[in-house]
Specification:
With 543 residues, the protein is α/β, with parallel strands linked by helices. It has 2 domains: 159 residues, FAD/NAD(P)-binding domain; 301 residues. 34% of the residues lie in helices and 20% in strands. It starts with a helix and ends in a 7-residue tail after the last helix. 53% of the residues are buried.
Protein backbone atom coordinates (compact mmCIF):
# COMPACT_ATOMS: atom_id res chain seq x y z
CA UNK A 1 0.00 0.00 0.00
CA UNK A 2 1.33 3.46 -0.87
CA UNK A 3 2.28 5.87 1.86
CA UNK A 4 -0.35 8.27 0.59
CA UNK A 5 -3.05 5.66 1.08
CA UNK A 6 -1.86 4.93 4.62
CA UNK A 7 -1.68 8.49 5.83
CA UNK A 8 -4.07 10.64 3.81
CA UNK A 9 -7.66 11.25 4.74
CA UNK A 10 -9.84 8.36 3.59
CA UNK A 11 -13.43 8.68 2.39
CA UNK A 12 -16.19 6.11 2.16
CA UNK A 13 -15.42 3.26 -0.20
CA UNK A 14 -17.25 2.91 -3.52
CA UNK A 15 -17.27 0.06 -5.99
CA UNK A 16 -15.97 2.08 -8.94
CA UNK A 17 -14.05 5.33 -9.24
CA UNK A 18 -14.18 6.61 -12.80
CA UNK A 19 -11.63 9.25 -13.84
CA UNK A 20 -12.90 11.74 -16.41
CA UNK A 21 -16.48 12.85 -17.04
CA UNK A 22 -16.34 12.87 -20.83
CA UNK A 23 -19.03 11.15 -22.85
CA UNK A 24 -17.49 7.66 -22.70
CA UNK A 25 -16.96 7.99 -18.97
CA UNK A 26 -20.59 8.95 -18.46
CA UNK A 27 -21.78 6.07 -20.63
CA UNK A 28 -19.64 3.58 -18.74
CA UNK A 29 -20.76 4.97 -15.37
CA UNK A 30 -24.43 4.75 -16.29
CA UNK A 31 -24.20 1.09 -17.31
CA UNK A 32 -22.22 0.17 -14.19
CA UNK A 33 -24.61 1.95 -11.85
CA UNK A 34 -27.67 0.47 -13.52
CA UNK A 35 -26.15 -2.95 -12.79
CA UNK A 36 -26.15 -2.18 -9.09
CA UNK A 37 -22.59 -0.97 -8.54
CA UNK A 38 -21.82 2.24 -6.67
CA UNK A 39 -19.97 4.61 -9.01
CA UNK A 40 -18.19 7.92 -8.44
CA UNK A 41 -17.14 10.01 -11.47
CA UNK A 42 -14.32 12.50 -10.93
CA UNK A 43 -14.03 15.31 -13.47
CA UNK A 44 -11.16 17.80 -13.45
CA UNK A 45 -13.11 20.63 -15.08
CA UNK A 46 -16.09 22.49 -13.66
CA UNK A 47 -18.41 21.00 -16.28
CA UNK A 48 -19.10 17.41 -17.30
CA UNK A 49 -18.83 16.31 -20.91
CA UNK A 50 -15.14 16.33 -21.83
CA UNK A 51 -14.76 17.57 -25.40
CA UNK A 52 -18.52 17.28 -26.01
CA UNK A 53 -19.66 20.47 -24.26
CA UNK A 54 -21.52 23.66 -25.15
CA UNK A 55 -20.31 27.05 -23.93
CA UNK A 56 -21.25 30.69 -24.34
CA UNK A 57 -18.09 32.01 -26.01
CA UNK A 58 -19.40 35.53 -26.81
CA UNK A 59 -22.32 37.34 -25.13
CA UNK A 60 -25.51 35.75 -26.45
CA UNK A 61 -23.69 33.17 -28.60
CA UNK A 62 -23.32 29.50 -27.61
CA UNK A 63 -21.79 26.63 -29.52
CA UNK A 64 -20.17 23.22 -29.25
CA UNK A 65 -16.63 23.90 -28.08
CA UNK A 66 -14.61 21.00 -29.49
CA UNK A 67 -16.62 18.13 -30.99
CA UNK A 68 -19.19 19.74 -33.23
CA UNK A 69 -21.48 17.38 -35.15
CA UNK A 70 -23.39 14.13 -34.60
CA UNK A 71 -23.42 10.84 -36.48
CA UNK A 72 -21.26 8.27 -34.72
CA UNK A 73 -23.22 8.26 -31.42
CA UNK A 74 -24.24 4.62 -31.18
CA UNK A 75 -28.00 3.97 -31.39
CA UNK A 76 -27.84 1.22 -28.75
CA UNK A 77 -26.26 3.67 -26.30
CA UNK A 78 -28.96 6.23 -27.10
CA UNK A 79 -31.67 3.65 -26.47
CA UNK A 80 -30.15 1.96 -23.41
CA UNK A 81 -29.59 5.26 -21.61
CA UNK A 82 -32.91 6.62 -22.89
CA UNK A 83 -31.17 9.82 -23.92
CA UNK A 84 -34.17 11.21 -25.78
CA UNK A 85 -36.24 11.03 -22.60
CA UNK A 86 -33.42 12.90 -20.87
CA UNK A 87 -33.71 15.76 -23.35
CA UNK A 88 -31.56 14.81 -26.35
CA UNK A 89 -32.87 15.85 -29.75
CA UNK A 90 -30.86 15.41 -32.95
CA UNK A 91 -31.80 16.98 -36.27
CA UNK A 92 -30.38 15.95 -39.62
CA UNK A 93 -28.66 18.38 -41.95
CA UNK A 94 -30.91 19.35 -44.85
CA UNK A 95 -27.94 18.82 -47.19
CA UNK A 96 -25.04 16.58 -46.28
CA UNK A 97 -22.07 18.50 -47.69
CA UNK A 98 -21.34 21.61 -49.73
CA UNK A 99 -18.02 21.86 -51.57
CA UNK A 100 -17.37 25.37 -52.95
CA UNK A 101 -15.24 25.48 -56.10
CA UNK A 102 -13.87 28.21 -58.32
CA UNK A 103 -16.97 29.26 -60.27
CA UNK A 104 -18.96 26.18 -59.27
CA UNK A 105 -19.86 23.90 -56.36
CA UNK A 106 -20.80 20.33 -55.49
CA UNK A 107 -23.67 19.40 -53.19
CA UNK A 108 -24.11 15.98 -51.61
CA UNK A 109 -27.01 14.44 -49.80
CA UNK A 110 -29.79 11.91 -49.97
CA UNK A 111 -31.06 11.68 -53.56
CA UNK A 112 -28.86 14.57 -54.64
CA UNK A 113 -25.27 13.40 -54.98
CA UNK A 114 -25.47 11.44 -58.23
CA UNK A 115 -27.06 14.21 -60.29
CA UNK A 116 -24.58 16.71 -58.85
CA UNK A 117 -21.60 14.50 -59.70
CA UNK A 118 -22.93 14.05 -63.25
CA UNK A 119 -22.31 17.76 -63.86
CA UNK A 120 -18.58 17.02 -63.57
CA UNK A 121 -18.36 13.47 -64.90
CA UNK A 122 -21.02 11.16 -66.35
CA UNK A 123 -18.67 8.24 -65.73
CA UNK A 124 -18.28 9.11 -62.04
CA UNK A 125 -22.04 9.48 -61.62
CA UNK A 126 -22.53 6.06 -63.19
CA UNK A 127 -19.98 4.46 -60.84
CA UNK A 128 -21.28 6.18 -57.71
CA UNK A 129 -24.00 3.62 -56.77
CA UNK A 130 -21.51 0.72 -56.97
CA UNK A 131 -18.98 2.70 -54.89
CA UNK A 132 -21.54 3.47 -52.20
CA UNK A 133 -22.87 -0.10 -52.15
CA UNK A 134 -19.46 -1.71 -51.83
CA UNK A 135 -18.32 0.77 -49.19
CA UNK A 136 -21.52 0.24 -47.22
CA UNK A 137 -20.95 -3.54 -47.26
CA UNK A 138 -17.61 -3.03 -45.51
CA UNK A 139 -19.03 -0.36 -43.20
CA UNK A 140 -21.85 -2.72 -42.16
CA UNK A 141 -19.36 -5.48 -41.40
CA UNK A 142 -17.20 -3.24 -39.23
CA UNK A 143 -20.22 -1.51 -37.72
CA UNK A 144 -21.24 -4.90 -36.32
CA UNK A 145 -17.92 -5.03 -34.44
CA UNK A 146 -18.21 -1.61 -32.81
CA UNK A 147 -19.90 -2.91 -29.66
CA UNK A 148 -17.73 -6.01 -29.35
CA UNK A 149 -14.52 -6.42 -27.39
CA UNK A 150 -11.74 -7.37 -29.81
CA UNK A 151 -9.92 -10.70 -29.50
CA UNK A 152 -7.21 -10.12 -26.93
CA UNK A 153 -3.78 -11.75 -27.22
CA UNK A 154 -2.95 -13.38 -23.87
CA UNK A 155 0.14 -14.94 -22.44
CA UNK A 156 -0.43 -18.08 -20.47
CA UNK A 157 -2.28 -21.35 -20.82
CA UNK A 158 -5.37 -22.55 -22.62
CA UNK A 159 -7.79 -21.43 -19.92
CA UNK A 160 -7.16 -17.78 -20.72
CA UNK A 161 -6.53 -18.25 -24.43
CA UNK A 162 -9.56 -20.37 -25.34
CA UNK A 163 -12.22 -17.60 -25.09
CA UNK A 164 -10.07 -15.36 -27.24
CA UNK A 165 -9.50 -18.11 -29.78
CA UNK A 166 -13.24 -18.67 -29.99
CA UNK A 167 -13.79 -14.95 -30.41
CA UNK A 168 -11.19 -14.88 -33.18
CA UNK A 169 -12.84 -17.85 -34.86
CA UNK A 170 -16.18 -16.05 -34.73
CA UNK A 171 -14.66 -12.99 -36.32
CA UNK A 172 -13.04 -15.12 -39.00
CA UNK A 173 -16.36 -16.80 -39.72
CA UNK A 174 -18.05 -13.44 -40.08
CA UNK A 175 -15.40 -12.14 -42.48
CA UNK A 176 -15.39 -15.38 -44.45
CA UNK A 177 -19.04 -14.73 -45.27
CA UNK A 178 -18.05 -11.71 -47.34
CA UNK A 179 -17.81 -12.04 -51.08
CA UNK A 180 -14.34 -12.10 -52.62
CA UNK A 181 -14.94 -8.55 -53.90
CA UNK A 182 -15.76 -7.39 -50.39
CA UNK A 183 -12.70 -9.14 -48.94
CA UNK A 184 -10.50 -7.38 -51.46
CA UNK A 185 -12.17 -4.06 -50.67
CA UNK A 186 -11.61 -4.66 -46.96
CA UNK A 187 -7.91 -5.25 -47.54
CA UNK A 188 -7.66 -2.12 -49.68
CA UNK A 189 -9.44 0.05 -47.13
CA UNK A 190 -7.13 -1.04 -44.32
CA UNK A 191 -3.90 -0.76 -46.29
CA UNK A 192 -4.29 1.84 -49.03
CA UNK A 193 -4.40 5.60 -48.96
CA UNK A 194 -7.75 7.27 -49.47
CA UNK A 195 -6.30 9.01 -52.52
CA UNK A 196 -5.30 5.74 -54.18
CA UNK A 197 -8.67 4.20 -53.31
CA UNK A 198 -10.62 7.15 -54.73
CA UNK A 199 -8.39 7.52 -57.80
CA UNK A 200 -9.27 3.93 -58.65
CA UNK A 201 -12.96 4.80 -58.63
CA UNK A 202 -13.36 8.34 -59.93
CA UNK A 203 -11.85 10.78 -62.40
CA UNK A 204 -13.22 14.18 -61.32
CA UNK A 205 -11.56 16.21 -58.55
CA UNK A 206 -14.72 17.43 -56.77
CA UNK A 207 -16.13 14.02 -55.89
CA UNK A 208 -12.70 12.78 -54.78
CA UNK A 209 -12.28 15.89 -52.60
CA UNK A 210 -15.74 15.45 -51.08
CA UNK A 211 -15.10 11.85 -50.08
CA UNK A 212 -11.38 12.28 -49.40
CA UNK A 213 -11.97 14.96 -46.79
CA UNK A 214 -13.18 12.28 -44.37
CA UNK A 215 -9.78 10.61 -44.61
CA UNK A 216 -7.95 13.56 -43.06
CA UNK A 217 -10.51 14.57 -40.43
CA UNK A 218 -8.63 14.21 -37.17
CA UNK A 219 -5.82 12.57 -39.10
CA UNK A 220 -2.57 14.52 -39.44
CA UNK A 221 -1.70 13.01 -42.80
CA UNK A 222 -2.04 13.43 -46.53
CA UNK A 223 -4.99 11.75 -48.22
CA UNK A 224 -2.23 9.85 -50.04
CA UNK A 225 -0.78 8.45 -46.77
CA UNK A 226 -1.24 4.65 -46.60
CA UNK A 227 -3.93 3.80 -44.06
CA UNK A 228 -5.92 6.98 -44.60
CA UNK A 229 -8.59 4.98 -46.45
CA UNK A 230 -9.55 3.42 -43.11
CA UNK A 231 -10.08 6.87 -41.56
CA UNK A 232 -12.47 7.62 -44.43
CA UNK A 233 -14.30 4.39 -43.61
CA UNK A 234 -14.37 5.16 -39.86
CA UNK A 235 -16.51 8.22 -40.53
CA UNK A 236 -19.16 6.11 -42.27
CA UNK A 237 -20.09 3.99 -39.24
CA UNK A 238 -22.69 6.41 -37.95
CA UNK A 239 -26.33 7.30 -38.42
CA UNK A 240 -28.83 9.96 -37.40
CA UNK A 241 -32.30 8.96 -36.25
CA UNK A 242 -31.96 5.57 -37.95
CA UNK A 243 -30.55 6.88 -41.24
CA UNK A 244 -27.16 5.34 -41.96
CA UNK A 245 -24.33 7.65 -42.93
CA UNK A 246 -26.28 10.82 -42.10
CA UNK A 247 -24.90 13.72 -40.05
CA UNK A 248 -26.75 16.11 -37.83
CA UNK A 249 -26.75 18.50 -34.90
CA UNK A 250 -27.79 18.08 -31.28
CA UNK A 251 -30.20 20.85 -30.37
CA UNK A 252 -28.33 22.90 -27.77
CA UNK A 253 -24.94 21.80 -29.08
CA UNK A 254 -22.86 18.74 -28.29
CA UNK A 255 -23.21 19.52 -24.60
CA UNK A 256 -26.83 18.42 -24.91
CA UNK A 257 -25.57 14.87 -25.48
CA UNK A 258 -23.44 14.77 -22.37
CA UNK A 259 -26.04 16.57 -20.27
CA UNK A 260 -28.52 13.86 -21.21
CA UNK A 261 -25.91 11.24 -20.31
CA UNK A 262 -25.29 12.96 -16.98
CA UNK A 263 -29.04 12.92 -16.29
CA UNK A 264 -29.08 9.17 -17.01
CA UNK A 265 -26.18 8.76 -14.58
CA UNK A 266 -27.90 10.70 -11.82
CA UNK A 267 -31.06 8.70 -12.30
CA UNK A 268 -28.99 5.52 -11.86
CA UNK A 269 -27.40 6.87 -8.68
CA UNK A 270 -23.96 7.86 -9.97
CA UNK A 271 -22.06 10.35 -7.80
CA UNK A 272 -20.88 13.01 -10.28
CA UNK A 273 -18.16 15.34 -9.01
CA UNK A 274 -16.68 18.26 -10.92
CA UNK A 275 -13.65 20.40 -10.03
CA UNK A 276 -12.05 17.20 -8.73
CA UNK A 277 -8.69 16.61 -10.43
CA UNK A 278 -6.94 13.29 -9.81
CA UNK A 279 -3.18 13.23 -9.25
CA UNK A 280 -2.52 9.48 -9.10
CA UNK A 281 -4.00 6.01 -9.21
CA UNK A 282 -3.26 4.11 -6.00
CA UNK A 283 -2.36 0.44 -5.88
CA UNK A 284 -2.07 -2.22 -3.21
CA UNK A 285 -0.42 -5.58 -3.88
CA UNK A 286 -0.46 -4.90 -7.62
CA UNK A 287 -4.13 -3.94 -7.75
CA UNK A 288 -5.79 -0.54 -8.22
CA UNK A 289 -7.56 0.41 -5.01
CA UNK A 290 -8.40 4.10 -5.39
CA UNK A 291 -7.06 7.49 -6.31
CA UNK A 292 -5.40 10.46 -4.72
CA UNK A 293 -6.77 13.89 -5.61
CA UNK A 294 -4.61 16.93 -6.24
CA UNK A 295 -5.64 18.32 -2.85
CA UNK A 296 -4.27 15.20 -1.14
CA UNK A 297 -7.63 13.53 -0.47
CA UNK A 298 -7.65 9.77 -0.98
CA UNK A 299 -10.72 7.96 -2.31
CA UNK A 300 -10.79 4.17 -2.14
CA UNK A 301 -12.64 1.77 -4.42
CA UNK A 302 -12.79 -1.82 -5.56
CA UNK A 303 -11.73 -0.81 -9.09
CA UNK A 304 -10.73 2.26 -11.08
CA UNK A 305 -11.84 3.07 -14.64
CA UNK A 306 -10.05 5.73 -16.70
CA UNK A 307 -11.62 7.76 -19.48
CA UNK A 308 -8.31 9.53 -20.20
CA UNK A 309 -6.01 9.28 -23.19
CA UNK A 310 -3.78 6.23 -22.49
CA UNK A 311 -0.67 8.42 -22.55
CA UNK A 312 -2.08 10.63 -19.80
CA UNK A 313 -3.18 7.72 -17.66
CA UNK A 314 0.00 5.68 -17.79
CA UNK A 315 2.58 8.47 -17.95
CA UNK A 316 1.08 10.84 -15.35
CA UNK A 317 -1.25 8.97 -12.99
CA UNK A 318 0.38 5.56 -12.68
CA UNK A 319 3.69 4.78 -11.01
CA UNK A 320 6.20 3.52 -13.63
CA UNK A 321 7.13 0.56 -11.43
CA UNK A 322 3.52 -0.65 -11.56
CA UNK A 323 3.80 -1.28 -15.32
CA UNK A 324 5.78 -3.86 -17.31
CA UNK A 325 8.75 -2.30 -19.11
CA UNK A 326 7.56 -3.25 -22.60
CA UNK A 327 4.05 -1.93 -21.99
CA UNK A 328 5.42 1.37 -20.72
CA UNK A 329 7.66 1.65 -23.78
CA UNK A 330 4.72 0.97 -26.12
CA UNK A 331 2.64 3.67 -24.42
CA UNK A 332 5.56 6.09 -24.78
CA UNK A 333 5.40 5.48 -28.53
CA UNK A 334 1.60 5.57 -28.76
CA UNK A 335 0.97 8.18 -31.45
CA UNK A 336 -1.28 11.17 -30.88
CA UNK A 337 -1.78 14.42 -32.76
CA UNK A 338 -4.56 15.06 -35.25
CA UNK A 339 -3.43 18.36 -36.77
CA UNK A 340 -6.53 20.14 -35.53
CA UNK A 341 -7.13 23.85 -34.95
CA UNK A 342 -10.67 24.44 -33.66
CA UNK A 343 -12.55 27.75 -33.71
CA UNK A 344 -16.04 29.07 -33.01
CA UNK A 345 -17.16 32.38 -34.45
CA UNK A 346 -20.15 34.61 -33.69
CA UNK A 347 -21.61 36.07 -36.89
CA UNK A 348 -23.83 39.09 -37.43
CA UNK A 349 -25.35 37.44 -40.51
CA UNK A 350 -25.03 34.39 -42.76
CA UNK A 351 -22.02 34.24 -45.10
CA UNK A 352 -22.50 34.41 -48.86
CA UNK A 353 -20.33 32.19 -51.00
CA UNK A 354 -19.19 33.46 -54.39
CA UNK A 355 -20.22 30.22 -56.08
CA UNK A 356 -23.69 30.17 -54.46
CA UNK A 357 -24.38 33.58 -52.92
CA UNK A 358 -28.01 33.36 -51.84
CA UNK A 359 -28.83 31.83 -48.44
CA UNK A 360 -30.29 28.34 -48.64
CA UNK A 361 -30.14 24.78 -47.41
CA UNK A 362 -26.50 24.50 -48.49
CA UNK A 363 -25.66 26.54 -45.40
CA UNK A 364 -27.00 23.73 -43.17
CA UNK A 365 -24.39 21.39 -44.66
CA UNK A 366 -20.84 20.55 -43.77
CA UNK A 367 -19.06 23.20 -45.85
CA UNK A 368 -15.71 21.82 -47.01
CA UNK A 369 -13.08 24.34 -48.09
CA UNK A 370 -10.59 22.02 -49.79
CA UNK A 371 -11.31 21.66 -53.52
CA UNK A 372 -9.08 18.70 -54.37
CA UNK A 373 -6.97 15.88 -52.96
CA UNK A 374 -3.88 17.71 -54.23
CA UNK A 375 -4.89 20.76 -52.19
CA UNK A 376 -5.12 18.55 -49.08
CA UNK A 377 -1.79 16.89 -49.83
CA UNK A 378 -0.06 20.28 -50.19
CA UNK A 379 -1.68 21.49 -46.95
CA UNK A 380 -0.17 18.56 -45.07
CA UNK A 381 3.30 19.00 -46.61
CA UNK A 382 3.17 22.71 -45.84
CA UNK A 383 2.21 22.08 -42.20
CA UNK A 384 4.97 19.53 -41.70
CA UNK A 385 7.52 22.02 -42.98
CA UNK A 386 6.29 25.28 -41.46
CA UNK A 387 3.93 24.31 -38.63
CA UNK A 388 0.72 25.24 -40.41
CA UNK A 389 -0.52 25.34 -43.96
CA UNK A 390 -0.71 28.70 -45.68
CA UNK A 391 -3.73 27.32 -47.56
CA UNK A 392 -5.37 25.26 -44.80
CA UNK A 393 -8.30 22.88 -44.91
CA UNK A 394 -11.41 24.25 -43.22
CA UNK A 395 -14.75 22.58 -42.61
CA UNK A 396 -17.39 25.10 -41.54
CA UNK A 397 -20.75 24.26 -40.03
CA UNK A 398 -23.39 26.82 -39.13
CA UNK A 399 -25.54 24.92 -36.60
CA UNK A 400 -27.69 27.97 -35.89
CA UNK A 401 -29.34 27.42 -39.29
CA UNK A 402 -31.00 24.39 -37.66
CA UNK A 403 -30.85 25.35 -33.96
CA UNK A 404 -32.17 28.79 -33.03
CA UNK A 405 -31.12 28.37 -29.38
CA UNK A 406 -27.47 29.12 -30.14
CA UNK A 407 -27.53 32.76 -31.26
CA UNK A 408 -29.66 35.92 -31.05
CA UNK A 409 -32.40 36.25 -33.69
CA UNK A 410 -30.99 36.98 -37.14
CA UNK A 411 -27.44 36.16 -36.05
CA UNK A 412 -25.47 32.92 -36.19
CA UNK A 413 -22.63 30.80 -34.86
CA UNK A 414 -20.21 28.83 -36.98
CA UNK A 415 -17.87 25.98 -36.11
CA UNK A 416 -14.54 26.02 -37.95
CA UNK A 417 -12.76 22.68 -37.89
CA UNK A 418 -9.37 23.54 -39.36
CA UNK A 419 -6.52 21.38 -40.65
CA UNK A 420 -3.59 20.99 -41.20
CA UNK A 421 -1.56 22.39 -38.33
CA UNK A 422 1.34 20.69 -36.54
CA UNK A 423 0.55 19.31 -33.07
CA UNK A 424 3.91 20.75 -32.00
CA UNK A 425 5.46 23.63 -33.91
CA UNK A 426 8.95 23.17 -35.36
CA UNK A 427 12.02 25.12 -34.21
CA UNK A 428 10.84 25.27 -30.60
CA UNK A 429 8.04 27.73 -31.33
CA UNK A 430 5.07 27.85 -28.96
CA UNK A 431 1.44 27.71 -30.07
CA UNK A 432 0.56 30.41 -27.54
CA UNK A 433 2.64 32.86 -29.57
CA UNK A 434 1.00 32.00 -32.90
CA UNK A 435 -2.61 31.08 -32.20
CA UNK A 436 -4.02 34.52 -33.12
CA UNK A 437 -2.02 34.61 -36.38
CA UNK A 438 -3.31 31.20 -37.40
CA UNK A 439 -6.86 32.13 -36.35
CA UNK A 440 -6.66 35.14 -38.67
CA UNK A 441 -5.50 32.82 -41.44
CA UNK A 442 -8.50 30.55 -40.94
CA UNK A 443 -10.90 33.50 -41.09
CA UNK A 444 -9.15 34.74 -44.24
CA UNK A 445 -9.45 31.27 -45.79
CA UNK A 446 -13.23 31.33 -45.37
CA UNK A 447 -13.30 34.93 -46.62
CA UNK A 448 -11.62 33.82 -49.84
CA UNK A 449 -14.63 31.64 -50.65
CA UNK A 450 -17.25 33.86 -48.98
CA UNK A 451 -16.10 37.49 -49.40
CA UNK A 452 -17.15 39.68 -46.50
CA UNK A 453 -17.07 36.80 -43.99
CA UNK A 454 -14.32 38.52 -42.02
CA UNK A 455 -16.57 41.54 -41.45
CA UNK A 456 -19.39 39.35 -40.14
CA UNK A 457 -17.29 38.01 -37.25
CA UNK A 458 -18.24 39.74 -34.00
CA UNK A 459 -16.53 37.28 -31.65
CA UNK A 460 -14.38 34.20 -31.78
CA UNK A 461 -13.10 31.34 -29.64
CA UNK A 462 -9.77 29.74 -30.52
CA UNK A 463 -8.34 26.35 -29.61
CA UNK A 464 -4.89 25.46 -30.92
CA UNK A 465 -3.62 21.87 -30.48
CA UNK A 466 -1.98 23.03 -27.25
CA UNK A 467 -5.26 24.55 -26.04
CA UNK A 468 -7.13 21.33 -26.81
CA UNK A 469 -4.60 19.35 -24.80
CA UNK A 470 -4.54 21.48 -21.66
CA UNK A 471 -8.30 22.12 -21.65
CA UNK A 472 -9.66 18.71 -22.63
CA UNK A 473 -6.72 16.33 -22.24
CA UNK A 474 -6.53 15.77 -26.01
CA UNK A 475 -2.82 14.97 -26.26
CA UNK A 476 -1.35 16.84 -29.22
CA UNK A 477 -4.86 18.11 -29.93
CA UNK A 478 -5.80 14.56 -30.95
CA UNK A 479 -9.58 14.34 -31.16
CA UNK A 480 -9.42 10.52 -31.36
CA UNK A 481 -7.19 9.88 -28.29
CA UNK A 482 -4.67 8.26 -30.62
CA UNK A 483 -4.09 7.85 -34.34
CA UNK A 484 -6.46 5.49 -36.17
CA UNK A 485 -3.67 3.53 -37.82
CA UNK A 486 -3.49 -0.22 -38.31
CA UNK A 487 -1.00 -0.60 -35.44
CA UNK A 488 -3.41 1.23 -33.09
CA UNK A 489 -6.73 -0.37 -34.04
CA UNK A 490 -8.92 -3.22 -32.83
CA UNK A 491 -6.81 -5.80 -30.93
CA UNK A 492 -3.86 -3.37 -30.90
CA UNK A 493 -5.71 -0.43 -29.34
CA UNK A 494 -4.02 0.91 -27.31
CA UNK A 495 -1.49 -1.94 -26.96
CA UNK A 496 -1.61 -5.54 -28.16
CA UNK A 497 -2.62 -7.74 -25.24
CA UNK A 498 -4.76 -5.05 -23.61
CA UNK A 499 -7.58 -4.53 -26.10
CA UNK A 500 -10.15 -5.83 -23.59
CA UNK A 501 -10.19 -2.56 -21.59
CA UNK A 502 -8.09 -4.16 -18.83
CA UNK A 503 -4.68 -2.68 -18.08
CA UNK A 504 -1.57 -4.49 -16.78
CA UNK A 505 -2.68 -3.39 -13.30
CA UNK A 506 -5.51 -5.53 -11.94
CA UNK A 507 -8.60 -3.52 -11.23
CA UNK A 508 -7.56 -0.64 -13.52
CA UNK A 509 -9.65 -0.37 -16.69
CA UNK A 510 -9.87 2.01 -19.66
CA UNK A 511 -13.12 3.24 -21.22
CA UNK A 512 -11.99 6.14 -23.42
CA UNK A 513 -11.47 6.64 -27.15
CA UNK A 514 -7.96 5.22 -26.83
CA UNK A 515 -9.69 1.83 -26.78
CA UNK A 516 -11.74 0.04 -29.46
CA UNK A 517 -13.43 1.27 -31.62
CA UNK A 518 -11.58 4.57 -31.34
CA UNK A 519 -12.52 8.21 -31.50
CA UNK A 520 -15.59 10.24 -32.24
CA UNK A 521 -18.60 10.84 -30.01
CA UNK A 522 -19.77 7.23 -30.11
CA UNK A 523 -20.20 6.03 -26.53
CA UNK A 524 -19.03 2.61 -27.76
CA UNK A 525 -15.78 2.41 -25.74
CA UNK A 526 -17.72 3.29 -22.60
CA UNK A 527 -20.34 0.65 -23.37
CA UNK A 528 -17.74 -2.03 -24.08
CA UNK A 529 -15.62 -1.22 -21.04
CA UNK A 530 -18.67 -1.45 -18.77
CA UNK A 531 -19.39 -4.94 -20.08
CA UNK A 532 -15.84 -6.12 -19.26
CA UNK A 533 -15.88 -4.55 -15.79
CA UNK A 534 -19.22 -6.18 -15.04
CA UNK A 535 -17.87 -9.57 -16.14
CA UNK A 536 -15.13 -9.24 -13.55
CA UNK A 537 -17.70 -8.26 -10.93
CA UNK A 538 -19.87 -11.26 -11.86
CA UNK A 539 -22.67 -9.11 -13.24
CA UNK A 540 -24.42 -8.70 -16.57
CA UNK A 541 -25.01 -5.62 -18.67
CA UNK A 542 -28.40 -4.07 -17.84
CA UNK A 543 -31.14 -4.47 -20.40
Amino acid sequence: MTAALKTAQRTAETDIILIGGGHNGLVCAAYLARSGLSVTVLERRSVLGGAAVTEEFHPGFRNSVASYTVSLLNPKVIADLDLHRHGLRIVERKIGNFLPLEGDYLLAGDGLTQSEVARFSARDAERLPAYESRLETIADTLRSLVLETPPNLHQGGWAGALPELLKTAGLGSRLSGLSMTAKRDLLDLFSKSAGDWLDGWFESDPIKALFGFDSIVGNYASPYTPGSAYVLLHHLFGEVNGKKGAWGHAIGGMGAITQAMAAACREAGVDLRTDTPVSSVLTENGRACGVELEDGTVLTSRAVVSNLNPKLLFSRLVEPDDLPDDFRERIDHYRCGSGTFRMNVALSDLPRFTCKPEPGDHLTAGIILAPSLDYMDKAWLDARRDGWSREPIVEMLIPSTLDTTLAPPGQHVASLFCQHVAPELPDGRDWDDHRETVADLMIDTVDRWAPGFRDLVVGRQIHSPKDLERKFGLVGGDIFHGALSLDQLFSARPVLGHADHRSPIKGLYQCGSGTHPGGGVTGAPGHNAAREVLKDFGRRMPR
